[in-house]
Design goal:
- The complex is a heterodimer of chains A (352) and B (272).
- Chain A has 352 residues and is α+β, with helices and mostly antiparallel strands.
- Chain A is built from nine helices and 20 strands.
- In chain A, a hairpin with a 2-residue loop joins β4 and β5.
- In chain A, α3 packs across α4.
- The model of chain A has no long low-confidence stretch (mean pLDDT 89).
- Chain B is mainly alpha-helical and 272 residues long.
- Chain B is globular, with a radius of gyration of 23 Å.
- The two termini of chain B are 38 Å apart.
- Classes of the chains: A alpha+beta (352), B mainly alpha (272).
- The structure holds adenosine-5'-triphosphate and magnesium ion.
- The site of adenosine-5'-triphosphate has 12 residues of chain A, from β2 and α1.
Amino acid sequence: MARLSIEHLRKTYGDLTVVDDVTIDIADGEFLVLLGPSGCGKTTTLRMVAGFIAPSAGAITIGERSVTALPPWKRNCGLVFQSYALFPHMTVAENVAFGLEMRKVSPADRIPRVAEALRLVQLAGFDERYPRQLSGGQQQRVALARALAMEPDVLLLDEPLSNLDAKLRQEVRVEIRDLQRKLGLTTIMVTHDQEEALTMADRLVVMEKGKVRQIGSQRELYEKPADRFVAGFIGRSAFLDGEITAPGRFRTRGGVEIGCAAATGTGAATLALRPERIAVGGEAQGLHNHFQARVEHASYLGAILDIDVSLSGHDRMLLQIPNKAGVAEPKPGETITIGWAEDAGLVYPREA
Amino acid sequence: MSASTRPSLGSVALNAAAGLSLLYILLPLIFVTWLAFFRQEIPSFPPEGYSLKWFAAAANNQPFINGFLLSLQVGVAATLLGLLVGVPASLALVRHRIVLGPLFNTLLLMPLVMPGIVLGTAIYVFQIETEIATGLPVMGSQGGLIAAHTLVVIPWVVRLVTASLVGFDRTIEEAAQNLGAGPFTTFRRVTLPSIRPGIVAAGLFGFVTSFGNLEMSLFLVGPGRTTLPIAILQYLEWKIDPTVAAASLIQIVLIAVAMIITDRYVKLSRVV
Ligand SMILES: Nc1ncnc2c1ncn2[C@@H]1O[C@H](COP(=O)(O)OP(=O)(O)OP(=O)(O)O)[C@@H](O)[C@H]1O
Ligand SMILES: [Mg+2]
């Protein structure tokens, strides 16, 4: 187990930069989740750490060892592939023993370690099966056991749960997390499932277009998103485009004046509001900002209602309100009162 | 009524067509087998009686024995050489972007479609020219014969091994490397077992092709050095008794046994 440090990592293919100056420090035993939309460079980053892609620039250090120039077989990173990549011609036990064999562990010493790894992933007794005789979830756990058995310095998981159904995903999620804690494994997991990321991570890294947008805890990302992208990507946000007219004053494109503590500086900006900070109806009356809004569209989603409203001809925003018993959902064309506190919004300079 | 109790007209027709084709393919085999047991020397129908004497005659025929041994040696050597050249060539063709890759692929498959007479003539001329140019005794040598047979083995290897490589999931090679295996170990422990069926099938078909090759070999054998098919041909030039049928039947049985044994380890129908 060791600390992992990724410094100024970059990968370019011709003119295309797919990983751009990524710097991440992962503490010993930390569970870090790499999150971002499809194609943002998550897999590329992970594969550079594992040694399958040569970085165009930057350095990777595991513990005290610089591994940037080492081939994959000398890095001691346990990588769990999205497709599991079990050896089809080997039994479960042989699969798990492979890493030990490569480390010249004697056959007699391998047996207890394989058994231990399989016990950890709750597959004791499956030793003699072949991968094709296992379910997807079991194969996934064999892949995990295989990576764990070799006692890697860091564990790398590339969307390990994406091939599992929703229920199994929940279970394996907990299993992986428990195991990781118990063994104190320094781990990077890649996912584009936000819920998975939020439930599992010690810390999250949000990437977009090859760049790290923000690194932080769940609370930091949700309550203090570093930019508009993160505000929209982690959880939901209602966005209003406009400009800062004076410190604490924001005016939307449609001319609606909003008091907002976070508005500093000047110029074109976007106001981001978390849906649960927006009050509707009577509660909204007493708040610093309250407006009459026209309902454009309402969707019934069970526990919550999604309501698309317009503040003016130019300002539309999405609300989410809890579905309270006895409250009829607003109809399109109706006018409702909405409001939020002065400290509720976050303001980001408008991106070009 | 389900289809199983009353087969449809279509499935009856299909089965009939399949049965007829099979019969057509097996007919020569059936006749050779039958003929091998005839008692009389000049094959005529109906047979006068049955006997095993032709098998003894075939097994004691010195040219046949010498031919069999030579064919065996050449076949084994050519198969091994063909694999040695063909497997790396297939790996290179499938895994790397090679300039003119498709062209090389076609060239490597060419000996399979080229008429044996043409191939034989070409190699004959080439060997003569080589002998003249270098002074080495190439013409009619066993080495020359093996080299030529290697040529007809290579297409089988390239065809079957590239086919098994194309469907091969390379992430398992990465998994091996991730677990600490270097490139050579990865090839030996992970790649090779996965393409082994293709290699075994290629070896078998390559060997059978070499063993049965007549047209090309006709040009290349030297004095006192004939392969089994040529020995059989030469025998037929002055005698048509069932010894030849018996020799052929022995050959067929040997090849069938080889295929059955191979099939136990590798499902040939899945590779070819
Ligand atoms: N060999 C390559 N040549 C050129 N571009 C590549 C190559 N490999 C990956 N890319 C590009 O790099 C970008 C990042 O790819 P990567 O696989 O890292 O994405 P990802 O974040 O893992 O996405 P996903 O969530 O869909 O798995 C993509 O836009 C992809 O098209
Ligand atoms: Mg990916």
